[in-house]
Structure formats: C-alpha cells, structure tokens
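Researcher: Please predict.
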Amino acid sequence: MLKKLFKKSKEAEEIYAPINGEVVPLEEVPDPVFSQKMMGEGVAINSSEGEVVSPVAGKIVQIPDSKHAIGLETENGTEILIHIGLETVALNGEGFTPKVRAGDKVTVGQPLMSFDLEYIRENASSVITPMIITNSGDLNKDITQTEEKAAKAGETVLLTISGK
C-alpha cells in the first residue's frame, strides 16, 4: 500500500492549454487577484479563438450562472479554474455557450464552452484567460510552467505538477 501511495505522488500530472492563443505569465495578468496569485498558481492565455476545451481528464465541478468560468477537478484531485476573460462576470452570461454541465466527465481536448471573442473584446476589460490551480497551496507539489509562447488548445502542455 505504501508503494502505491509514494508511486502516485511521483507521477507527473500534465495540464494542457484550454484555449488557443499567446501564453502569458500569471504575474502579467492585469488583475491583482490573478497576478498576485490570490486564487493559486497558474498561467494565462491571451485568447485568439472563442472555444475552451478541457485541459485535463476529470469532471466538471462548476459553471456559474454567469458562464464566464469553468471549474474542473482532475482524477488526482487537482482543482482547476478557467476564467474566460477579465471582468466577464458582469456580462451575465451574454456571449457564452456551455457545452457541458456540472458533474460531466471530460477528457483532454473535449469542448467545454464557446464564446463570442469579439463581444468579450468590446464589453470586458480583457480576453486574457487565466487558468488557476485553486488548490495549489494544498498540493505540496512542484508546479512547472512551460516555456512555450503559443498555446494550442488540448495539445500544448502549459503546467506540469510533480511530487516534491
């Protein structure tokens, strides 16, 4: 039993890009909640297309009524928040079309949500989409960010979580 426990903690978990676009370090996101990592470690993408896919295999935990974000949990218990754009909660769901519901199981690359990129550009403060590991402080693991500058949804590994 102990071997199984230790083995699991040594396996790396890869988190893929949820969206196409330019990779932006979290520290450069123009919102202190994200840039100061108040919600956790992560990375952001300056969206170039209006589709979000699953960055992991797991399940959908939450999609708020405002549809501006998606909460997921991986099979290993990693909690991920994809926040589409900045100041998008004020759009009250306008421009967002969810493809999944809370409780759905998902695979890497599976479409989760489409959104009107131009509408968000015109009505929100930014199309930058942070992806946060909301329980990063509890994981006691190393989180490594990619050196890649361009993200291809469902293909580019953006974050790797590995045992310490």
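Model: The chain has one domain: 12-163.
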